[in-house]
Amino acid sequence: MVKNAGNIALLADKLADEKHAALITSDISRRYFSGFSSSAGMILITKEASYLLIDFRYFDKAKQRVTDCEVLLLENERKQLVDLLVNHGISTVSIESREMTVAQLNKYKENYPFINFDSTSGLSDEIGKMRIIKTPEEIEKIIKAQRIAEKAFSRLLRDLKPGLTEKHVAALLEYYMSEYGSDGKSFDTIAASGINSASPHAVPTDKKLEVGDFLTLDFGATYDGYHSDMTRTVAIGKVTDDMKRMYDAVLFANIDALKAIRADISGKVVDSVARSTLDAWGYGKYFGHSLGHGVGLEIHEPPLASPSSTNMLKEGMVLTDEPGAYISGKYGVRIEDMVVVTKDGCTDLANTTKDLIIIS
Asked: Per DSSP, which regions of the chain are E strands?
């Protein structure tokens, strides 16, 4: 029997008593606690010991990789869970209320009538508190994903030229990230040029790059489950004075937000700093989305930096700084970095220049 360890031990310590257990069923939480990726299975955490129950598709690999709990071959879920719950004298089981459907909960209640299922937000809240503060090991994985993405971006710059389609550009960037070690793209890559760059979440099209276009690239790699996220806007051939001025406004908003980010400041205040900078340049009305979001095992997770944010930033949080300005029918600019919040400021994880790159 493997005793509780790592994140599992931390959660076990939060259980009310020996009769209380936590049942982890969501893919992301299962990976967070076990370090193992799978599309099925569950983790039962008790004060005494914890178990990963997983089917034959993943069993051998899980046995090799998982060290923080005992790995059991999932053959008869109801019987195996009953045995574990009875053996540990469990009477209350907390579930991930934000991840489990009503139908799934009702099925658990039907199969285990002797158990009181705690369907409050308590377990989900506790997991959220744990995941929002990244460990040094998690930050290192995020940095590795970032370096992969940056290396791919640097290579892509050598390929960019008028005539390439947005789809071609996105495909090249994703291929290069894969070649440099990405487990997979963090999200669908955005490659938006010309008037398409005025749409923050544009989908790559057959539009060809033209001289005088802005090209906004929003992309990310993954490393051992952890994501990166960055955006750079480059120019094809040349820019007008108005285009350069918009770029500078967004750049200063990004830099001013970086200066504001630190522990014990709210996400709302940080967002307002970037928004005020864009207002001062005359572009505030063209900034329609939030300044940033958390990044980790998911590409979008807490904390949030937005006009409605209630998050207080804490040391060890990872979030994006991504101001933008978008003029419909003309063009748009976005510059995005990931940062780690520190006690007195933040560490910018991006090593790629934010000066305007003009592809000649």
From this structure: 20-24, 42-45, 50-54, 70-73, 92-95, 116-118, 190-193, 214-219, 222-223, 226-227, 230-236, 292-294, 301-305, 318-321, 324-327, 331-334, 337-341, 346-348, 358-359
